[in-house]
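Exercise 7. Predict the joint structure of the components listed below.
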Amino acid sequence: MPYVTIKMLAGRTDEQKRACVEKVTDAVVETTGASREKVVVFLEDMEKSEYAVGGVLFSDQA
Amino acid sequence: MPYVTIKMLAGRTDEQKRACVEKVTDAVVETTGASREKVVVFLEDMEKSEYAVGGVLFSDQA
Amino acid sequence: MPYVTIKMLAGRTDEQKRACVEKVTDAVVETTGASREKVVVFLEDMEKSEYAVGGVLFSDQA
Amino acid sequence: MPYVTIKMLAGRTDEQKRACVEKVTDAVVETTGASREKVVVFLEDMEKSEYAVGGVLFSDQA
Amino acid sequence: MPYVTIKMLAGRTDEQKRACVEKVTDAVVETTGASREKVVVFLEDMEKSEYAVGGVLFSDQA
Amino acid sequence: MPYVTIKMLAGRTDEQKRACVEKVTDAVVETTGASREKVVVFLEDMEKSEYAVGGVLFSDQA
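Solution:
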């Protein structure tokens, strides 16, 4: 606790994911007082064919 | 806003997904007054080995 | 199956929610071939103090 | 109804997943009075590179 | 890890929720080999006005 | 995009939530290159009676 889920388009490098998880955890600890070892982060990749804004899939956007 | 997530068994064609996202977005815009460009849709595929009803996985159902 | 989750800012009337659920179900049935009686819809209300874009809560936006 | 989602690190065998779904369904039926045929279970696999505790991805833990 | 989310119509007693969480945890530990102290369960109540099957909200079903 | 969900026990102040959303957004922008105005954060409060670790609800823990 807390539990953080980050949903992004696929394509970030391992290095970006590693940094993202670390800095987001820092931010949660600093602002909520949660213990660092209790902060859980889940990363979820979205494909462009699974994500639409305005009724159009990203894989179909020009 | 709004954010719509549609979870289905895998196997729909790209054409079905495209139509689903478009028509669901139409329905949300028409009934809630949300701006079309703010409607977000996420599609999530489930495998038959990840989905159970009545305690039995779909991959095990006759 | 399918399972549809619709997350919106609170404030829609019961009439809007009823229409939204009905029309979204129509759209899913029409485009995916799912049986109408198997389409499940979950509505989730968000408060303005629980939703941020660009790092600012809606309750804090001018 | 009820809808149960079980998120675990990937790597369980089909036999473990089958048993997990069956026993969790038993537990829900026994304790809530829900009809067995209405209990839905979704399994979600996490990769070690998508899951962090304490700011460190599992794929980076010694 | 594992993380279990149980979504049900509101109305279960505290005693039912307590038993549900305990028995579901037992089932997960027994079938997956996870350590008991690592099993996390989230309960989520749904209102009848937020849940529809076949395009009709439960609050509207006869 | 990205979409961040932060699930925590209820009880944080508005000031803590405001800071959390801002700093988490900073962290995501800095590490993933996403545009700040595209980062969406959802906050979700859990009650102690809806959250269990090791099979025991937080509301029952000594």
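Discussion. Chain C has a mean pLDDT of 96.
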